[in-house]
Amino acid sequence: MTKGCIFVRRYLLLGLIILFMFSMVGCEDDQESNTSGNIINAGIAAQQGKWIYYSNDKDKFKLYRMDIKGHKNEKLSNDECTYINVLDDWVFYSNGLENFSLYKIKTDGSQRTKLNDGNSLFVVVDKDWIYYFNSNDNKIYRMDHNGRQVTPLIKDKCWSFVMSDNNIYYINMDDGYSIYSANKDGTGKNRITSDSSHYINVVDGWIYYCNSDDNYSIYKIKTDGTQRTKLNDLESGYLNVWDDTIYYRDNQKGGIYSMTTDGSRVKRLQQTDGIFINVLKDWIFYSDVETGEIYKINRADGQRSNLN
Fold first, then answer.
1. Residues with Cβ within 8 Å of residue 215, at least 6 apart in sequence
2. Percent of residues, the chain, with pLDDT higher than 70
3. I need a surface site. Which of 25, 82, 216, 304 has the fewest CB within 10 A?
4. Hey, how many other C-beta atoms are within 10 angstroms of the C-beta on 191?
5. Which residues touch 96 (CB under 8 Å, ≥6 apart)?
6. What is the C-alpha separation between 239 and 250, in angstroms, rounded?
């Protein structure tokens, strides 16, 4: 079995289930530790200043960092990492070798610290708390940066969540995968749409999602539940919204595409098929469907290259 197959199988078995289009999680705060679109796509890359932190497929998906010019490439941890968040001088991630236990490590690779034991998916870090989804009980939790004060936030059976403007937006499994909102402490819930919704992103007051009631076509809706709009008529997945551009996979024919947030200017970015789409300032990272190898695409000229 190739390392790419091992990588994909592990995340399917342990709850990512991204291959089956079941929605995602992200965060938008005053200081982002990673973008919502990246976290919903397993968080295989994050950027802080001149450094890109990433899961290195050439070394069993261990945690590395490289400078944005590609002159330096450094290993930080031997852990198999996903859901990478970088805040100040700490990197937070889930360790696939330990059933997705949460860890943190200094950006220079020192002070590696275990924060909990397993099943921490779709991790979101802000200046005060770590938020995560536990696949054992389908609950959203938060804890402090030292792994203490662990608290369940939502009583509903959830699938995933997004945080924006001090609110939580989550998928309510008890109500047909509808999108709900709640305050950051889990109180004050409100249903936004009854659409069966997956791959949610929240950007600039809009929620973007794939509607499985309509063959996973991409929709958007305001966070107050108004202006529900259909954007395409295609079975879509791996949604990642960056500024005024939506990146996604055509789940029928394969391939990575982009379109503007009004549904126009559709463009195919790569002839090869890709999943786990992560978008940084100058690069798009993705995992090749057949090999599991991670590639990057230059957002300016569209050229593809290996990470190393």
1. 233, 235
2. 90
3. 304
4. 12
5. 10, 11, 14, 61, 79, 80, 81, 82
6. 10
Q: What is the CATH number of the domain that holds 103?
A: 2.120.10.30
Query: What mean pLDDT comes out for the span 175-181?
Result: 97
The pTM score is 0.89
- Across 149-244, the runs of DSSP E, i.e. the strands, are 151-152, 158-164, 167-172, 178-183, 190-193, 197-203, 206-211, 217-222, 229-230, 236-242
Give the range of the structural domain holding residue 138, as residue numbers without chain letter: 3-306
**What is the amino acid identity at position 124?**
V
- Counted domains in the chain: 1
> Would you say the C-alpha torsion 17, 240, 305, 124 has a positive or negative sign?
negative
User: Distance between CA 82 and CA 54 in Å, rounded?
Assistant: 8
pLDDT at 227 over 80: yes
Tell me which residue of 247, 230, 229 sits closest to 238, measured CA to CA.
247
